[in-house]
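ping. complex inputs:
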Amino acid sequence: MSSSQIIQRKIVLASRPIGAPTADNFRLTETPLPALAEGQLLLRTLYLSLDPYMRGRMSDAPSYAAPVAVGEVMVGGTVSKVVTSQHPDFKAGDLVLGMSGWQDHAVSDGSGLTRLGALEQPSLALGVLGMPGFTAYMGLLDIGQPKAGETVVVAAASGAVGSVVGQIAKLQGCRVVGIAGGAEKCRYVVDQLGFDACIDHRAADFAAQLGAACAQGIDVYFENVGGAVFDAVLPLLNVGARVPVCGLIANYNDTALPPGPDRLGLLARTLLTRRIKMQGFIIFDDYGHRYGEFFQQMSQWLKEGKIRFREDMVEGLDNAPQAFIGLLQGKNFGKLVVRIAND
Amino acid sequence: MSSSQIIQRKIVLASRPIGAPTADNFRLTETPLPALAEGQLLLRTLYLSLDPYMRGRMSDAPSYAAPVAVGEVMVGGTVSKVVTSQHPDFKAGDLVLGMSGWQDHAVSDGSGLTRLGALEQPSLALGVLGMPGFTAYMGLLDIGQPKAGETVVVAAASGAVGSVVGQIAKLQGCRVVGIAGGAEKCRYVVDQLGFDACIDHRAADFAAQLGAACAQGIDVYFENVGGAVFDAVLPLLNVGARVPVCGLIANYNDTALPPGPDRLGLLARTLLTRRIKMQGFIIFDDYGHRYGEFFQQMSQWLKEGKIRFREDMVEGLDNAPQAFIGLLQGKNFGKLVVRIAND
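pong. complex structure:
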């Protein structure tokens, strides 16, 4: 089958969101694929990862990566199967991890593709064995440096990153307190993931509950939400605390700075007087060279049943926009993945 | 001479300042010294160090150290001479570094005292060879980790800490931009200390001048002032920048948070998107065990003429309050030290 006979379906950025994204910001388009040139290969997307960072790419505010252009396909990590190949390093049937984005097929020159070995569950390469798991691993261990007996707090605790952060912290002998939205997620975090406690951030007395659950203060706060959760965490941070910053999902839809007073100086003062380290990181930029080490360790933990995970699988490319909009509202439960094709 | 015959003169905290300290917050008192007990020694203060951190000790807001109680002698680092000793480890005539505070004599049990060897200029143990120099050394090298060719920015560049930060950064092969108050200090920083540039923070176009002097952005910002200087630095911080936080003198007199908008989330977002590390430290708490390493290296640099320093010597204990009030206004020029006695 020549690639030129395939109609490629993709979801492009139709317009930049103001505040929370809506369905209008996305558009499904269909175009025939061009024929493969020498050195190219055709990929069929099996799984598309949906992650909070994509909200940043929809805006043209300065960020760590160039924005998606209006009319361009939305970015995203993918697990794909090679359909046909004119590339010496890939053959039909190979499974690869890449960044095809929100589309069912992609033509690639092979750059940026990682061949996946025999994985029982290939979608895990987008979750616990992929970017979110790697983010949790390096952010917690390299920046957070938790020690046995310390208190580690992580928000979005049932999510792709937070769930792994907390479980690794438990393996280090820490007391682990999760934060999640709603009783069901909190139960899952404690009962299934083994956290010591989990606080519902929707509770009216959330800050008081968090304080009670962290009677010894907080030594490591893994920051992936910001906003009101960080406000509750800040007064609990211990002398010498470490705050790896991997995301700020609570602020992604903000269109303006919140009203005062201005607490920028208060944050700096807290870092000073409590000798706190706060450090942002972008996983592949900062730690790409250590992915192999992570993959080996995490595979081992999975095999031993020491790390559990949960996928929230959405069926079909057409449902990606709604699923993504829900992700920013905390509606997913587990790592959000879109199944684009079965094989 | 028995110690009981000596009238001890000391400056105590008379009241807690609201905003900037005034002369009324200090009071000179005179009391006869008690006789020495076994294991004690009597110290005569030669030099008293005045440093911005003392402002924090005058307040009872939560901080990294307990406040000075009202009526208690003000804290401060001192170089003293042993007058008489009933302590086996010290003898009359020994020079010691300690924390006698703002007073001309002190009775000590020897704890916390460091014997000073033969120093040509003993007051340097309060400056370039003491706490400020040590702060500059560890904050810059251990947290800032400057690499040759990078741009390092330091405020209060003619001061006790900033002057050393910039000179060490030059020794590392960095481009160094200082910030200071007034043309005279800026000239000194460039002409005498060898910084590549120095910007007057009082200039109306300060932020624009700083941007022009940091055409390649800022890789290390050594934070010792906060306030408007940090506001100008923040947009210039490069991806991967490091921000050691050793002081926030601009905010020490604040009685309330400044008006909005609230930029706490903006700071967190900047740390995230530019992968910045911001880390507070308290020099002896975090690095006390490495003082020997610092002292050896700095002594070597001084001997080789690689580090220059400037003292702002004030004569007499009575003048300490006004000198300290001036320090918080940037009126000193170089390391502020009070000479209490000549020998």
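Chain A has two domains: 3-126+311-339, 131-285.
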